[in-house]
Amino acid sequence: QVQLVESGGGSVQAGGSLRLSCAVSGRTGNIYGMAWFRQAPGKEQEFVAAILSVGGGTTYAGSVKGRFTISRDNAKNTAFLQMNSLNVEDTGVYYCGARTSYGSIQLPSGYNYWGQGTQVTVSS
Question: Dihedrals φ, ψ of 14, to 5°?
């Protein structure tokens, strides 16, 4: 079993920055990769960014590329999402996911563990 706990959400004005954290506990050695997804009100869950446990390769959604950075501190079992130049369209609940098997990196179905989510609100 793997447990994920997100933190770092909040309210910020457009152009501002936030840094989300995802603390991982449990069988962390079984994690193949981690990702951040988000869900805006009335919309489906959307892929944001992913990182591989081995090698640290990253993948980003086009809408956040160049503004967001995903990283992982393996020693602290924590994943991060640094979000810069935030805009109103970035508003939503951000979820951290972890996968212990191979699957689609950019689909929620590819992840078998999730955190509870953290709210990010960007105002104009």
Answer: -55, 135
How far is residue 36's CA from residue 13's CA, in Å, rounded to a whole number? 21
Phi-psi region of 111 (alpha: psi -120 to 50; beta: other; left: phi over 0): beta
Residue from 109, 7, 97, 87 nearest 53 by CA: 97
pLDDT computed for residue 85 by the predictor = 98
End-to-end CA distance of the chain: 40
Tens-place pLDDT, residues 77-104: 999 999 999 999 999 999 999 999 888 8
Query: CB within 8 A of 14, min separation 6: which ones?
Result: 86, 87, 88, 122, 123, 124
Type of residue found at 43: K
Q: What share of the chain is helix, strand, coil (3-state, %, to 5)?
A: 5, 50, 40
18-26 β-sheet, strand order: 2-7, 18-26, 78-83, 68-73
